[in-house]
């Protein structure tokens, strides 16, 4: 059965320069992401890019937030910084929204849910960096919001391969279909 692309969106999460640079291991690292984006575009599916970034002065960052307070101290993750721009290998097209979030989940402090409602999206296809960060947090919140979910396991990267394996093999299947980009692409035909 073919996927209902009219009510589905591909979320490409945290594939921004400052994060991708930590994971690049050659020219093929981003290939699964590129293949997923191209397949979604060819199918006429909504592609939405999600990035993490902060205002100048980092007013959104509490000193109690262990993860983000380090970013604020480094001072290089403002919305205008090169580190928060989507990596050029995945350049968004003009009609593809770029959502800025202020926490780990793609929903946290962003306008993502407003866009999804406006586009009548019911099914989210998730890919991103890192599996144990934005993908996990977004999947959990999206499941609680009753979205149908798919995770593209080869278009998710994590610093810890074992954590990635456990999430895609044992945790994510409880709330989402977990598949590869190639298998997912076949469902678009």
From TrEMBL:
Residues 8-183 form the Isochorismatase-like domain. The keyword Hydrolase applies. CDD domains: cysteine_hydrolases (cd00431). Signal peptide: none annotated. One of its GO terms (molecular function) is hydrolase activity. Keywords: Hydrolase. The keyword Isomerase does not apply. It comes from the Bacteria. Belongs to the isochorismatase family. PANTHER family: ISOCHORISMATASE FAMILY PROTEIN YECD (PTHR43540:SF7), PEROXYUREIDOACRYLATE/UREIDOACRYLATE AMIDOHYDROLASE-RELATED (PTHR43540). This is Nicotinamidase-related amidase.
């Amino acid at each position: 059965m073919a996927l209902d692309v009219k009510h589905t969106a591909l979320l490409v999460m945290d594939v921004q320069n400052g994060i991708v640079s930590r994971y690049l291991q050659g020219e093929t690292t981003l290939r699964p992401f590129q293949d997923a984006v191209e397949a979604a575009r060819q199918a006429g599916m909504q592609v939405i890019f999600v990035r993490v970034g902060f205002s100048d002065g980092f007013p959104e960052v509490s000193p109690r937030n262990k993860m983000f307070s380090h970013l604020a101290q480094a001072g290089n993750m403002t919305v205008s910084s090169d580190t928060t721009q989507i990596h050029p290998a995945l350049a968004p097209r003009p009609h593809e929204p770029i959502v800025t979030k202020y926490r780990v989940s793609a929903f946290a402090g962003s306008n993502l849910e407003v866009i999804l409602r406006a586009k009548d999206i019911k099914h989210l296809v998730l890919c991103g960096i890192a599996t144990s960060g934005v993908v996990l947090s977004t999947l959990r919140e999206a499941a609680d919001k009753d979205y149908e979910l798919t995770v593209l396991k080869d278009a998710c990267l994590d610093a810890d391969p074992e954590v990635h394996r456990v999430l895609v093999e044992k945790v994510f299947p409880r709330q989402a279909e977990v598949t590869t980009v190639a298998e997912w692409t076949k469902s678009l035909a």
